Amino acid sequence: MNILVLCTGNSARSILLEQILTHRSGGRIKAWSAGSKPAGKVHPQSIALLAKKGFPTDGLTSQSWDDYAKPDAPLMHAVITVCGSAAGEECPYWPGTPLRAHWGVDDPAAASAADQPAAFATAYDLLEARAKQLLAIPFEKMPPAELQKELDRIGR
Asked: How far from each other are the two terminal CA atoms of the chain, in whole angstroms?
């Protein structure tokens, strides 16, 4: 299953979930991430946290969602937005036919420098818990409408 994880800046939450889904799924999911207004670099706290958790960090980039709208881009089965619902930030919308879900998490990069390590850890824990819920179901065998219900349930 191909999943595109979207957020505005593509430097923190979307990067975290991309890595969790890809590397904890045992090959069941390949995830990518992008932003509607990419920051241009991955947040240093994202890289530090992922490295601490044992994820590869080489080659992580902050990129535009336009890269995944090109004709040669991978076909996405689902698009998950992770921007916070109460943070007053713009959340990108992905057109087309993939399943869509919103798994909002507050932006850890918006925390003060002193609070960022804890904010990133909290964001990671929330995203990991949601990823585990997805990985616990037989999504490969589910009809799209049933999978959509599960994706929405996980995001609540």
From this structure: 22
CA distances from 123 to 62, 139, 153 (A): 18, 24, 18
- Among residues 75, 69, 111, 84, the alpha carbon closest in space to that of 8 is found at 84
Q: What is the tens place of the pLDDT at every residue in 19-73?
A: 999 999 999 999 999 998 999 999 999 999 999 999 999 999 999 999 998 889 9
Using only C-alpha atoms, the chain has a radius of gyration, in whole angstroms, of 14
Helix (H, G, I), strand (E, B) or coil at 78: strand
Note if the pTM is more than 0.90. yes
